[in-house]
């Protein structure tokens, strides 16, 4: 989708700090990090929200990418948090499915 910022990042039409790429997804640094490590796991295909994606393989690949990145960055032992904000009360602001990968500081009850 031409007017979707994450489609544009995934197709490299706008720059982002890329951490990992597979056939079906990219992992990039969040532009406004909430922790020392704050990444976004983005499918290349456009799904507005989690609710729109029925592709179990893709959803599994997103989780697998999170584990891979955790090991690659050495935050697997200390731990990390995955978040999929969904729709308005879920705090979603970009309507292209994405998973936040947050690590590098103690994360207590809430995300912020
Ligand atoms: P959400 O509130 O779950 O929809 O999260 C959207 C996230 O995308 C926010 O954490 C933003 O900081 C991040 N974001 C927005 N635009 C960009 C961009 N061009 N590059 C990297 N991250 C972005
Ligand atoms: Zn998109």
Features:
binds zinc ion, 112 residues, HIT family, subunit A, alpha+beta
- Please tell me what the overall shape is: globular
Supply the helix-strand structural class. Answer: alpha+beta
Would you give the CATH topology?
Answer: HIT family, subunit A
* Main sheet: strand order: 1-2-3-5-4
Give the bound compounds. adenosine monophosphate, zinc ion
Mean pLDDT score, rounded?
96
Strand content range = 15-25%
Number of helices: 2
The major sheet is characterized as: 5 strands, antiparallel
Estimate nothing, just give the exact number of structural domains: 1
User: Which architecture per CATH?
Assistant: 2-Layer Sandwich
Oligomer status: single chain
CATH top-level class: Alpha Beta
The radius of gyration is 13 Å
H and E order: HEEEHEE
C-alpha termini separation: 30 Å
Helix content: 10-25%
Classified in CATH, the superfamily is: HIT-like
Low-confidence stretches: none
- Count the beta strands: 5
Gist?
The protein has 112 residues and is α+β, with helices and mostly antiparallel strands.
């Amino acid at each position: 989708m031409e007017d979707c910022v994450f489609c544009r990042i995934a197709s490299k039409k706008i720059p982002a700090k890329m951490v990992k790429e597979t056939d079906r997804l990219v992992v990039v640094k969040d532009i406004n990090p909430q922790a020392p490590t704050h990444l976004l796991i983005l499918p290349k295909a456009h799904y507005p929200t989690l609710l729109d994606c029925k592709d179990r393989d893709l959803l599994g690949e997103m989780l697998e990418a999170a584990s891979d990145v955790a090991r690659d960055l050495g935050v697997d032992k200390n731990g990390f948090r995955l978040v999929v904000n969904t729709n308005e009360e879920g705090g979603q602001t970009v309507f292209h499915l994405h998973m936040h990968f947050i690590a590098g500081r103690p994360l207590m009850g809430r995300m912020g």
